[in-house]
Amino acid sequence: MIDKELMTSCSEYPNPDLLIRTSGEQRISNFFLWQSAYTELYFPNVLWPDFGEAEYLKALTWYQQRQRRFGRRV
After folding, report:
1. Which intervals of the chain form a coiled coil (predicted)?
2. Which residues are CB-contacts of 50 (< 8 A; sequence separation ≥ 6)?
3. Comparing C-alpha atoms, which of 6, 64, 7 is closest to residue 56?
4. Residue 36 vs residues 1, 5, 31: alpha-carbon distances, Å
5. H or E stretch including 29?
């Protein structure tokens, strides 16, 4: 019910699976807080202007190695 009332419910895109926060900052600053409940968070120590294809591939490789549980215990 809450999800339908959010201003982002008009988006055609699903909730994010991976959120990349550059510069090593380990916070999301209320960015899509509700939608990011099961999002994998990646914090590279690279500033945004320097975040290129190589860093993006590192993030994707890291994400592929994650075991996603969606709140379930293993």
Report:
1. none
2. none
3. 64
4. 16, 16, 8
5. none
Q: What are 12's two structure tokens?
A: 């055609």
Q: How far is CA 49 from CA 14, 22, 53, 65, in A?
A: 27, 9, 12, 26
Q: Are 46 and 20 in contact (CB under 8 A)?
A: no
Nearest C-alpha neighbor of 15 from the set 38, 31, 41: 38
**pTM for the full model?**
0.77
Q: What is the pLDDT along the chain (74 residues), one digit of tens a residue?
A: 777 777 666 677 788 899 999 998 898 888 788 888 889 999 999 999 999 999 999 999 999 999 877 677 76
